[in-house]
Specification:
The protein has 1003 residues and is an alpha+beta fold. 42% of the residues lie in helices and 23% in strands. It has 30 helices and 38 strands. The strands form 7 sheets. Strands 1, 3, 4, 5, 7, 8, 9 and 10 form an 8-stranded mixed sheet that branches. It has an 8-stranded mixed barrel with strand order 31-32-33-34-35-36-37-38, surrounded by 4 helices. The protein has a 7-stranded antiparallel sheet with strand order 21-20-19-25-24-23-22. β9 and β10 form a beta hairpin. α3 packs antiparallel against α5. The longest helix is centred in the middle third of the chain and has 45 residues. The relative contact order is 0.04.
């Protein structure tokens, strides 16, 4: 027989440890290389690049949607001006276009709107090209009148417009506005074959689209042009232009804004793509369904690596690119084999109904692989060096420790070899615990071997009667058993003492027992169950082992443990008060059910919340409160539609999920019937024998609302609390619109806090004009938010109402409006200030004292507008009236004819003014019902000396109808737009008012 060569303990310990260190280091490096670490580092780098491009794309889209394309107001103003011009001139569109004097006059009227458009949209230019059709036989080159203003520094603004220049337009505009002309100025726009403009699409595209798609809106017909130059030595610009049409759908011009390519490059900082600053941003365009891109503009040194002669040197298609790793495109430059990575993200410029929707613009971020993965390569090198140094230190330490450990063991071996075997062994202790214990074990080994021979049987006999043992000796064919073995199985063998039995008899006896296998955990262990004569169950665990020449086993009565475990499981999964499932068991049951959603069919998640539980606990004590909870549990167990899973999750909250219904309507009727049954259940109280169960409930539907049980519970909870806070005691179904509205309020809570804390509310002032004289009577302060996330006044009020912060809005309104008005020029010293005040809010005494101290001369010229957007508070209303009387201020009822305003409120507060709601003013010149309602209002106010203000006037004919009807004051965009400063009324408006008053009234 081969005898293995022995080795020293040092080799036994040191060599394996060294091998383990080597294997561990190799595995670590292999995992790093092949286990995805490097790929993950590369993936993280590309994810970061992609996210930066996405963020920049999102910023660009916000600029596009919120500023650059938001020119509808300017377009409407220009269309209204043109309609009025046509009406006054009594000419057709083309007759006006061919009259140079009239087009010059028209462009002079349009110039303030274009200046305002440049300032408001923060763009580098704005233009308006009038649609003069070419004459028959006119040369291929022809001219159109128009006006083109440019601002090379959009973020800077000069009050005298000296930062602007005129690129195209009549020279008279320079004298009228003081805006200088540029070196490339020309009085008209040239179109045709030899036009200096390299691309006429900024005009032609929206113009012909308007002709082909007259049913579309101006905004849907708007067009983004690729870069072009207005003339040979001009700047590269991109334009956004839309058609302007008359009421009869004639295109009289094209309005647009300009974005210089230099300005756009400043909005694409390529240095943000990576720390090296070697990336690049590109704007590109392709047709839908194509992977061939046209280069528009770029910014960054890496742009030249993907461009050749200002074109992409390759097309993006599967044969030339691969995605790595599904975030950016990996591109190989064929000229220098440089590996590049490009991230493409679509810019949403056009609506789905736009004729130009197929022209798709992309923002592309480009970076070369060396700079993109520089950090991951540095990490890799550092890890490899660290592993190598650690391996060297570990090998040296293992060698040293092997020497230290083996030295005392060698000494002990020498002592053993030199000892006398006939004398008791005594070894010298070396004060190393393990080796000293080994010496002690050797000294006592012979004594313990003798004593252990008889220990087994004594231990078993001394244990509890719940354990029995047996042993089969293979050589003798007999079985030894202890005295309690057969007692565990309910049979009597012998006199209850241990003994021997033939193996065949033992096998027959055990097989005849009425046992049920309960829990086969392994080949060596099994749990069986038996029932005794009284019908009680017993559980027995049987363990079996084997050694050379014998087989042995132990049987143990574990009934107590099983019952205790069953009780523990029940208490773990059930509510002790009601016996319903608790939260853990409910979630576990739902999780198992939702793994097979096809079996659930139509289901309803219902949350019931007990009403009046706190009242019962506080009034009658917790015993009655507990009984109230148990009554609700019993009612749900009796009436909740089956099949269902029912649970109590907290003090007064119950959930159940009913499923298996064929349709939603049937299941909903069953739940409504359950609610009616529960509401009719009586729970007598000491002083109220007819007290009824009351609960509020919410329902969410599977699979309509969600296919995840946790989301269904959340939706049901939302519906229940909506019912509890609106119509307590009702059953309400989940409504996604209400849920999203609530989510919106929660999301914007911090934005409202920032708006108020940082005082980001400003106020523009819109003039109110005397209808008789045309002079400015006063200004209304209109709230403006400086937060782009909260642009709307209605949104701000809605959020403030939800957070109970309307009083802060009221305070900021008074402070900021008065401050802004006090800083206006002296020409408004005799004008009134109209302040919108919430009728259910009041200023604190401290704020009142502050206003009286700062603005004593201004307070008598205040008109407190009681807005219709909030319901009134009678006490606060009286306080406001007293405050107005104290200051000598006046009262106006805002939005009369809509909202909460009504005749009762008019009689109650007796205002000095009423402001007629713009909904009534709209189309007052053609709507007889509106006109009749207006006459009844004016008849009432004139009899009582209340002055009337018509707000929201947008057309000349509306203003004329109102003046002839006897309205005292006028307000609206047609009269004057809200501005941060005080705006003067255009002389033409004053002349028009004077002309209407001088004419005799219509019969």
């Amino acid at each position: 027989m081969y005898k293995r060569k022995s080795v020293s303990i040092a080799n036994k310990m040191v060599v394996p440890v060294i091998l383990i260190l080597l294997i561990q280091s190799a595995l670590f490096l292999a995992v790093m290389v092949h286990g995805g670490l490097l790929d993950q580092l590369h993936h993280n780098a590309t994810e970061i690049l992609d996210q930066r491009v996405v963020n920049r794309r999102n910023d660009m889209e916000r600029e596009i949607q919120n500023r650059w394309t938001n020119i509808n107001d300017s377009a409407r103003a220009l269309q209204n001006t043109f309609e009025l011009f046509l009406k006054n001139s009594d000419l057709g569109v083309q007759e006006v276009m061919r009259d140079e004097r009239m087009t010059t006059e028209l462009l002079e009227q349009f110039s303030p709107d274009l200046i305002y458009l440049i300032r408001r949209q923060t763009v580098s230019g704005a233009f308006l090209v009038l649609n003069r059709a070419p004459d028959v036989g006119e040369a291929s080159d022809f001219f159109r009148p128009g006006l083109y203003l440019r601002n090379l520094h959009p973020l800077q603004e000069e009050a005298d417009n000296s930062d602007l220049s005129i690129e195209r337009g009549p020279s008279t505009i320079m004298h009228r506005t003081g805006i200088p002309v540029s070196r490339s100025w020309y009085p008209t726009f040239r179109f045709g074959n030899s036009s200096t403009i390299s691309n006429d699409n900024y005009f032609n595209k929206p113009y012909y689209a308007a002709l082909h798609y007259p049913e579309l809106s101006n905004q849907e017909l708007a067009y983004w042009s690729p870069p072009f130059r207005l003339c040979g030595g001009d700047l590269d610009v991109i334009t956004y232009s839309m058609p302007l049409r008359t009421k009869d759908n004639q295109v009289f011009g094209i309005l647009g804004i300009e974005l210089s390519c230099n300005y756009l490059r400043s909005l694409l900082p390529y240095t943000e793509l990576g720390p090296s600053g070697n990336g690049a941003y590109l704007l590109a365009m392709n047709r839908e369904g194509s992977m061939d891109f046209d280069h528009l503009l770029s910014n960054g040194p890496s742009a030249s690596m993907v461009l050749e002669d200002d074109k992409f040197f390759l097309s993006l298609d599967p044969s030339t690119i691969s995605k790595d790793p599904d975030l950016v495109y990996k591109i190989l430059n064929p000229h220098n084999n440089l590996e590049l990575f490009a991230c493409l993200h679509y810019l949403n410029l056009y609506a789905e109904t736009s004729p130009f929707q197929a022209e798709r613009w992309y923002l592309i971020g480009v970076m070369d692989a060396q700079n993109l993965f520089n950090f991951s390569k540095l990490i890799t090198r550092t890890i490899v060096i660290d592993v190598f140094i650690t391996l060297l230190i570990g090998v040296g330490g293992v060698l040293l420790m092997g020497r230290i450990v083996t030295h005392p063991i060698t000494q002990l071996i020498h002592e053993v070899r030199s000892s006398n075997p006939h004398l008791p062994l005594r070894f010298k202790r070396i004060r190393i615990n393990e080796i000293d214990e080994l010496a002690t074990a050797v000294e006592s080994l012979s004594r313990e071997v003798a004593e252990s021979a008889s220990r087994m049987s004594s231990i078993i006999e001394m244990t509890s009667s719940n354990i029995g043992a047996f042993e089969r000796r293979l050589s003798e064919g007999i079985v030894y058993y202890t005295s309690h073995l057969f007692d565990l199985f309910g049979i009597s063998v012998g006199n209850g003492t241990s003994g021997y039995m033939e193996f065949a008899q033992f096998t027959t006896l055990m097989h005849s027992l009425p046992l049920t296998v309960e829990e086969p955990s392994s080949d060596r262990e099994v749990v069986v169950r038996r029932k005794d004569e009284e019908g009680e169950l017993h559980w027995i665990r049987i363990k079996q082992g084997q050694s050379p020449g014998r087989v042995f086993g132990i049987a143990e009565d574990i009934t107590h443990d099983v019952l205790a475990r069953q009780k523990l499981v029940y208490e773990r999964d059930h509510d002790p008060m009601t016996g319903l499932l608790n939260r853990r068991a409910f979630y576990a049951s739902l999780s198992a059910m939702f793994e097979r959603p096809q079996l659930l069919k139509v289901g309803a998640m219902v949350m019931c919340d007990l009403d009046n539980l706190k009242y019962i606990n506080d009034t009658y004590g917790h015993d009655y409160g507990d009984q109230y909870i148990r009554e609700m549990a019993n009612a749900l167990m009796q009436h909740a539609p089956s099949p269902r899973v029912l649970a109590r999750l907290s003090g007064d909250e119950f959930y159940f999920f009913s499923y298996g219904a064929e349709d939603r309507e049937t299941l909903f009727q069953q739940i409504c019937k359950m609610k009616q049954e529960i509401d009719s259940i009586l729970m007598p109280l000491p002083d109220n024998p007819n007290f009824r169960l009351r609960s509020s409930a919410g329902i969410s539907w599977f699979p309509d609302d969600s296919q995840a049980y946790d989301q269904l519970m959340h939706y049901a909870d939302f519906s229940m609390y909506t019912a509890k806070h609106t119509s307590k005691g009702e059953l309400r179904e989940f409504n996604m619109h209400d849920y999203m509205q609530e989510s919106y309020l929660i999301y914007n809570n911090e934005e409202l806090n920032r708006l108020l804390d940082e005082n980001l509310l400003t106020y523009d002032f819109q003039p109110i004009v005397d209808a008789a004289s045309g002079k400015v009577f006063g200004y209304e302060a209109l709230m403006r938010s400086q937060l782009p996330t909260l642009p709307s006044t209605d949104e701000i009020l809605s959020l403030a109402r939800a957070q109970s912060k309307l009083h802060l809005i009221e305070r900021r309104t008074w402070q900021n409006a008065l401050k802004g008005f006090s800083e206006l020029p002296e020409r408004v010293d005799d004008c009134y200030l109209f302040i919108n005040s919430l009728p259910n809010q009041i200023l604190s005494p401290e704020i009142v004292r502050e206003l009286e101290k700062r603005y004593p001369d201004l307070l008598p010229r205040i008109v407190i507008e009681l807005t219709e957007k909030e319901p009134q508070n009678d006490r606060y209303m009286r306080d406001k009236l007293q405050l107005a009387q104290k200051w000598g201020a006046k009262i106006a009822l805002d939005g009369f004819g809509a909202g909460y305003s009504n005749d009762d409120m008019l009689l109650q507060i007796e205002p000095d003014f009423i402001k007629i709601n713009m909904k009534l003013i709209r189309d007052i010149d053609i709507d007889t019902k509106h006109h009749q309602f207006l006459e009844s209002i004016l008849s009432y106010t004139k009899e009582r000396g209340i002055r009337s203000i018509a707000e929201g006037i947008e057309t000349s004919t509306e203003m004329e109808t109102l003046i002839r009807s006897g309205v005292d004051y006028l307000q609206g965009f047609y009269i004057g737009r809200p501005e941060a400063g005080s705006s003067e009324i255009a002389p033409s408006i004053c002349e028009e008012i004077h002309s209407i008053n001088c004419q005799s009234p219509e019969p």
